[in-house]
């Protein structure tokens, strides 16, 4: 949860000869996140900083022989020392570099075709994940939707490995939802208390049945 450490200042308080505006519910968040959602340039910059996205970009920028050389170099990293060339080819499935015709910038995207349309989901770096989740959940236009709706909205705009887990943790840790949203858990019925019967027909039970779909039944259908 992003939070500002600056104290809340009253409207009437003056600081440096300028009137200080009061902070709103989202002002600490928007102050840190600045522009929302992240722009194409910011996503590209985050991909270059993220180690995994940077490796995928380098592999897609070269031919097969160059990819083999890069895979050998990646083995020096203890995290990827067991990755073979085939493993990296498997990781590259679905990823492409989307090139802008105007400035020639390349953004790593995950190509996910569907029956109705073809979606290009931008692959986010680790630093852009929280900003993307803020856009899909905390932003006033998102309305603090639940985990399923937040995840569906994020999948329409972005892609990164572990979207389900990150979305679940982010929504669960949202302080605004914890304070104001009613609990979504259904209340269970209390324990059954048995009754000691003393006289016949003290308690009667009846089973309610719907109309029978089988043939050969009586005219009333039950």
From TrEMBL:
Protein name per Swiss-Prot or TrEMBL: Integrase zinc-binding domain-containing protein
Source species: Strigamia maritima (European centipede)
Superkingdom per UniProt: Eukaryota
Domain Integrase zinc-binding: residue ranges: 128-183
PANTHER family: ENDONUCLEASE-RELATED
Pfam families noted in UniProt: Integrase_H2C2
InterPro entries attached to this UniProt entry: Gypsy_RT_Integrase-like (IPR052160), Integrase_H2C2 (IPR041588)
